[in-house]
Design a protein that fits this description.
The complex is a heterodimer. Chain A is α+β, with helices and mostly antiparallel strands. Chain A starts with 5 loop residues before the first helix and ends in a 5-residue tail after the last strand. Chain A has helices at residues 6-17, 23-29, 34-46, 79-90, 116-127, and strands at 50-57, 66-74, 95-102, 107-113, 133-146. Chain A folds into 2 domains: 6-46, Arc Repressor Mutant, subunit A; 66-140, Alpha-Beta Plaits (2-Layer Sandwich), CATH 3.30.70.920. The longest helix of chain A is centred in the first third of the chain and has 13 residues, at 34-46. Chain A is elongated and about 55 Å long. In chain A, helix 2 crosses helix 3 (34-46). Chain A is 37% helix and 30% strand. By secondary structure, chain B is an alpha+beta fold. Helix content of chain B is 35%, strand content 30%. Chain B contains 5 helices and 5 strands; from the N terminus they run αααββαββαβ. Chain B has helices spanning 7-18, 24-31, 35-47, 82-90, 117-128, and strands spanning 51-58, 67-75, 96-103, 108-114, 134-147. In chain B, a hairpin with a 4-residue loop joins strand 3 and strand 4 (108-114). Classes of the chains: A alpha+beta, B alpha+beta. At the A-B interface, helix 1, strand 1, helix 4, strand 3 and strand 4 of A face helix 1, strand 1, strand 3 and strand 5 of B. Strand 1 (50-57) of chain A pairs antiparallel with strand 1 (51-58) of chain B.
């Protein structure tokens, strides 16, 4: 594992806000040359600390007005059940994230839909028909904020 | 604001979503648009606020944060400022990387990261349990991410 200095942390935070900034523009902010900044970004990427980049879209403006988190408990356990469930759930386009968790649920899903009736369609036709699904708990997302984290 | 996206806009966004760092020439080739027309379309999507930008994804595990816990909190709603007070205080905990509010059985969910279980225990006892107006907490321990792209079905 690599250790980060203050400038690495600042670069990481800046890229988490806007990853389109090039090494030159970023370097000027922190009094670094373009090649020095580029080397730092490359190092963060190679260490896997920058895991990728994500397009930031306004989901409401694109007509996706509802986000629901589902807690799912599998009715049947065993390796085959987990594999089958994971393969099937990851293929649903409206399912944005799937996390395997320990606790009162086995999986946590983030589901996007146009509105509540669209969500009902996804829930009934896609989620409830998944292999091995048991208990399902739904919570409708009202607000969310990402925090910078311990940088 | 109401507006209509056409098929071409959706195609551009789909391609950008699958690879945010795709170059303009590559995008132009994929969509059959000239570079200028494509740039104008992308500019329009930015002006409309549909396209907000590109963000780097930080892998906390690569930074030594091995533990991730999802804390599902029920608040004492007899306190009128329960949500505001709780969220304001949660923002001060560095290891909280996400705060979400819900309609349902859960009121607020916090994503908490820690270096290991000992570190998590410290954060949980000293900082999380000190947050105001908690009625109940349930923890889900994160095991693996099966799908994480968060892409929209455009």
């Amino acid at each position: 594992m690599i250790t980060l200095d203050d400038i690495d942390r600042k670069i990481l935070l800046a890229l988490a806000q806007d990853a389109t900034q090039n090494a030159g523009a970023l370097g000027r902010k922190f009094d670094l040359s373009q090649p020095a900044t580029w080397r730092r970004i490359k190092r963060l990427q190679e260490a896997g600390i920058i895991a990728g980049r994500k397009l930031d879209l306004d989901k409401e403006k694109l007509g996706f007005g509802v986000t629901v988190f589902l807690g799912i408990k599998l009715a049947t356990k065993g390796r085959v059940s987990l594999d089958d469930f994971e393969r099937a759930v990851a293929a649903i386009p409206e399912v944005q994230t799937v996390e395997h968790v320990l606790g009162m649920y086995d999986y946590r899903l983030r589901v996007t839909a146009r509105d509540i009736s669209d969500f009902e369609r996804v829930l009934r036709r896609r989620v409830m028909t998944l292999p091995g699904v048991g208990d399902v708990e739904a919570n409708v997302l009202l607000s969310e904020e990402s925090r910078p984290g311990p940088l | 604001m109401k507006f209509m996206l056409d098929d071409l806009d959706r195609r551009i966004l789909r391609l950008m979503q699958s690879d945010p760092m795709r170059s303009i020439p590559d995008l132009a080739e994929q969509t059959g648009l000239s570079g200028t027309r494509l740039s104008r379309r992308i500019e329009k999507l930015r002006e409309l606020g549909v396209l907000r930008g590109v963000r780097a994804i930080i892998d906390w595990r690569a930074l030594g944060y091995e533990v991730e816990v999802s804390l599902r909190v029920t608040l004492d709603k007899t306190q009128t400022r329960a949500f505001d007070d709780f969220i304001a205080a949660a923002r001060d905990i560095a290891e909280v990387i996400e705060i979400q509010t819900f309609l349902g059985r859960v009121d607020v969910r916090l994503s908490v990261i820690a270096r290991d279980m000992v570190h998590y225990q410290q954060i949980y006892r000293a900082q999380i349990l000190a947050l105001p107006h908690i009625a109940d907490i349930e923890a889900l321990m994160h095991v693996a991410r099966i799908k994480a792209d968060e892409s929209l079905p455009l």
